Structure formats: C-alpha cells, structure tokens
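User: Show me sequence and structure for the first protein, then do the same for the second.

Assistant: Starting with the first protein.
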Amino acid sequence: MFEYLSAINHVFEIAFYVLLFILFYASLKKCFLQDGQSKGKLFFQSLITNPIILFFSMCFVAVLIVYVGLALRLHDFTKVDSNSLINDTLTSSVILLITYILFIFITIPISYLVGKSLKAHNKSLVTFVYLMFSVIVTVYSDRSSILSADTGWPFSTLANISSIINVACLLLLYFFIMKALARLSDKKRDINWKLFLIPPIAFLLLYGVFDFYTLTFCSTDANAVVQILSFVIQVLFIWAFYVIIKNIKATGDAQESKEEVKTLSVEVMEALAHTIDAKDEYTRGHSVRVAKYSRMLAQRLGLSREDCENVYYMALLHDIGKIGVPNEIINNPSKLTDEQYDVIKTHPGLGYDILAEIKSRPDLVVGARWHHERYDGKGYPDGKIGEDIPFFARIIAVADSYDAMTSNRSYRKYMSQDKVRSEIEKNAGTQFDPKVAQVMLTLIDEDKEYTMHE
C-alpha cells in the first residue's frame, strides 16, 4: 500500500517540477515578452532564475552559512559533521529560516532585473509573478522535506493530498492570475505595487517564522497543521488576486471608455466651434484660441485640473449662439447699425437656449450666456456686475477680448502687443475682472516673441 502511495507521490512531484518550469516561462512570456524580443533569451532567464532554482540555491547558501558559523565557533572545520548538521532539528530549522530570508531578498532584485531586461512597463508585476510562484515553491519544498508517502498513516495520505494541491495551485495560478495579469501588463497602467508585493512577501516571512517555530519547539504534527493552513492561504491568495486584477481591469476599461467618450465629446465640440467660426472668414479658429487662452488663465489662477478643462469646454462653445445670427450681419465689413448690433447682442441668449438642451453638461451655458458681461455692470444680456458674473465667464471674457484684439479683422490688422496690453490694463476693473486681467497681463509680459496672436 505504502509503495503504491509513494509511487503516486513521486508522479506528482515530477509533475510539479515540470509544470513549474513550463508555467513560469509561459507566464513571463504571456505577460511581459515584447515584440521583437528573443524567446530563447527569456527561456534561459526563466530557467536560471526560476523560484525553485533560487530556493534550492538559497538552501545551499543557508547550509553553508550555518556550517561555517558552527565551524568558526568550534575553531575546527573537521569537527562539524555535515550529516548531523542537517539532521539536527534546531539547525535544520535555522537553515530553513535563513533560506526564506535569503530567498526573498534575492528574488526581488533578480525579478527586477528580469523585468528591466523585458522592458516591462511595471516591474513590480514581474516581481509579483516571481513571488506568487515562490509562495507555492516554499510550501512544496518544505512539504517534501517533512512529509513522505513512506512515513505511514496519516502522513502518507497527507503527502499525496498536498502534492495534488500544489499541482492544482500551479494550474490555478496560471489560468486565473497570469492570464488575467497579461491584460494589465500590456498597458501603462498605474498599479499600486504595495497591493501586489506586500501580501506574498509577508506570507513568505510569516511562513518561515512559523515553520521555524513548529520544527524547533513543536512536533511534526504541528508542522503538518501549518502546512495545511498554508495550502488554504495559497488558494485564498489566488482567488483574492484574481478578484483584484479583474476589478483593476474593469476599472481601467471603464476609465478608458470614459476617456474615449471625453475625447469624442471634445472633438465634436471643436468641430462645432470651427463650424461656428466659419460663418466669418475673419474669425476662423477664434473659439479654439479663446478656449486655449481661457485654460491658460484658469491654470495660472490656480484652478483644479477639472475646472481648467471645464473652462476650456465652455469657451469652445461660447459663440454658439451666432448660428442664429444672419450671415450678412456677421460678415458686414462696415460699422454695424444700431439695429444690427441689437441682433448681434442676441447671440448669448441664443447660445444659452441651445446649450441648455445638453442636460448632462448644464455648466456649458455659463460661457455662452455671460461672456459679454462687464465687471462694471454695463455688459449684456443680463447686466450682471462684479462677483455676480460667474467666475468662468469672467475668465472667458478676458480671453475673448484678447483674441479679438490679436486677430485680423476686415477693417484692421491685429493690434500690436503693447496696444493690447494697454487696453487690458486700462479696462481692468471696468470691463474685466481685475484679478483675471492681471493674470492676462502676466501672460502677455512672458510672451516676449508675441506668439499669442492669430
């Protein structure tokens, strides 16, 4: 019976080693191999830096450290019996603890170098792959040194069960974690490295401490309990990270969709702005320039990134009401009559009515309705005064006037920079919000080459 159980155990041991090498290489390849990179080079890297190789290498180093340490204490290397050294419970426990510590501190820099070689966008994900395989390797390696199918009941059965679980954990790790991870690692996402690295590192350290304690001060039964709990934790790890990675991907996909919709919305607004400006050959590009200047002012005024973008969108559509103004008035090359000017003055109200239909962005009406209000209350359409004028509209009003002065018209070329500066300075506090006007003056002073014009 025991021979049969032992044979099953050896089959699963071989399966574990083979699967570990294959799945570890497949994971690095699937998650991090870039186009044009050598698969052979990656295979060699995965072979010599495989967690099982690193673990047994660290075992050798740990034995060497303990061997040398004891020899130095005895002042005679010949007095140290290597066989009794390994068989001594306390010494073997110390060796395991040193192995775990060395294993972690060697795995992290090696995985980083492999990630650097693979030009991975996020090298912490490469380290995560190493650590997750390492969790399974440490439990398996320790199990194989404690349990055997030849030790009789119940350890013979436990040995076989643990072998099956470790093989199953490898398959679960690859199919549930590594395949999901591949969808994160192919893009430059912001990944919280602590979320991915601290749990497996903590597991390896705690497992090493518990393994040391149970081997040194308890019995084989106690160590078997630690092993059983470690199997449970392995499965929980895989399930937890599967959920985490799935949620990160879902959040990232939703954010990408949101960005795509946002980009499309901006492109539609810019196209609409160009359509509005095309009614007058002398105002081509006016709305986009006003939007750009408005955003610059908002940034200098210390507004949030979101508010700066909102000002930009409002400014893009500030003249949308001109759609309802007859072309002959807009393109009139001579001075407008009072009647024609009254028609022009209707475009803020028309713009408000048009944009009010966009229920998802009620703030867009601000720029359209109030960009011709004056700080002294002499503007239109509502005659608002000072702080009663929405702040974003006050920003757009300065940007709008600046572009009007720095653009060519049918009756004049764009004004000189000194003249524009003088006009804004003169009208600060009357036509313009003085704080916004001062920021515009600062931008003008910084524009030494006078590049901010049509």
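Switching to the second protein now.
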Amino acid sequence: MSDPSPFAEKLISNIERVIIGKRQVIELAVIGLLSEGHLLIEDVPGVGKTMLARSVACSLGVVFSRIQFTPDMLPSDITGISFFNQSKQEFEYRPGPIMANIVLTDEINRATPKTQSALLEAMQERQVTVDGVSHPLPRPFMVLATQNPIEYEGTFPLPEAQKDRFLMRVKLGYPDKRDEMLLLDRQKHHHPLQDLEPVAGAEELMSAQQSVREVHVSEAIARYIVDLVDSTRNHPEITLGASPRGSLGLYRASQARAWIRARDYVLPDDVKALVRSVLAHRMIVSPKARLREVRAEELLDELLLKVAVPGGEGVEQPAASRS
C-alpha cells in the first residue's frame, strides 16, 4: 500500500491556512472524509464552524452546497422537487442543494424534525427519493452539519436516529490569544478563504477512501472496539448506549487515523483517540447522572480505563508490514 501521509498532510495544511490553531479538529474532519462519514460540528457562534466546512470543500475542488436551516423549511427544499415539464409533457426532477459533494447544513437544529428527516436517506443510503423515484447522490459525498449547543429558542433537538448517522461530533472551541492575534493579522485585508486553492481532487479522495478500507484491523482490535461499544450499553448511568453503527464508525475511523499516520494496521491508540468523538453523541446519559452534570465524555473516559486493552496479539502487524 502506498504511503498515504502526503495526501492527508497537504489537505490538513491547506485547511490550516483558514482554521488557525485547530489541527486536531481538522484531522478529525479529514478522518471523517476518508471514512466516508458525516460530521456534526457543535459549538458556540463565531468560532469557525462554517469556515471549516467551506475550507474542506475548497481544498478538494469539489461541488459545495450550503443549506441554511430555518423552522419554515420543507423537505423538498433539501431533496429537490418533481415538476411537470409542459413542453416535454413529462415529469422531471429538479435537484435540491443536497446534490453536491460537500453539503454544509448550517444550524441543523433550527429545522423541524420532518425537515431534518429528509437528510436520513441521503446520509445513510447516498440517495434521495422524490415522488417514488430514487436519485443517487454524487460521489464523494459528505454532510457537515453545524449547531449551536447553547441556543434553545426556535430550535428542535436532533432525534437519536439523526445523530446516529453522524460519524463524529467535534467542537472547535475558542482559539488561544496567540492564534487569535494571528487570525486578526491574516484577515487584515481579506479573508484567507478567498485565496484557498484545491490541493486534491475527487478522484484522488475516492482512491484514498478505498485505501483506508484496506488498513488491517486484527481480530483483537475488532474485539476491543466491540467491547468498548458494548460497555456503553451496560453502564448504570447510561440510558441508551451506542449502536452497532457506532462500532462500525469507530472501526472505519480507526482505519483512517492509522492511514493518515502512514500505517497499514490499526493500534489500540487509534481507537482510544477517537472514542469520544465517535461514541459520545450516540449515548443518552441517565437523568440522575445529568443532575450531577456528568457528561457522556466523562463516562467514556471511565470505560476506557475498565475495558481491557489488547496485548501483543492486538498490535500485531500484517505479514506484509513485517516482511
């Protein structure tokens, strides 16, 4: 397998020209991209959620679409409509903004549950169905959704089925003072996004995605992933544990993290580094735990200490790597 690190590095470095001081979050976004997953970016206004999504699209030179979610939005505003063409005397499909490679759904929790549900088929099956006819989405395809966790008026919490379709939930957080000074300097005359050029293309990305799936995951590592996810279903302070989709998401994301680091095998450290981002948003903490302000991330840290980490056989490399 060819060394994949140059692809990831040029993508991350290019995005860092816009999103300053957040390399770890950018890497998670690239991991989501390589895993063919979707990203939920949850944070306060003004920290760069939208800019992260736009920077990913600009760096790849693919079709980008932005959907501003509002309470009066209809599902057809996302998926498109079927209309009768009088000149041709037949029905035609007019694509909606979901028909793009990178789709930014801004403030997703401002739309009603009915409108939010229009994304379910697109995110899972890579197609939309309008008037009984299915239309495939372009490849590659990724949804980056943003939401403000502290604003509740006029918002509708994402249903569990919706959240479960996001591979990861990430938070940007505030920049430190040094990075914020650099941000002011870079935007003195114009926004750096205006100068951002593509460093990769759709074909190169899809080739990388295929290579990620070839990364070796030993049986012990796979068992470790299943044990971690299963432990979320049996914890007394967790009402709803992570789904099997969470196991698969952790598996795929761990492959992508190993690939970025130029390895063709997954280590337990890859799994540990991604547990919070992949599993926390899929869990519901019990009411008693919420009263004590216990967060899902804290419970996952506790489970990481309890679940046995694979030993020698868990980090065994494939034969091709040892030769």
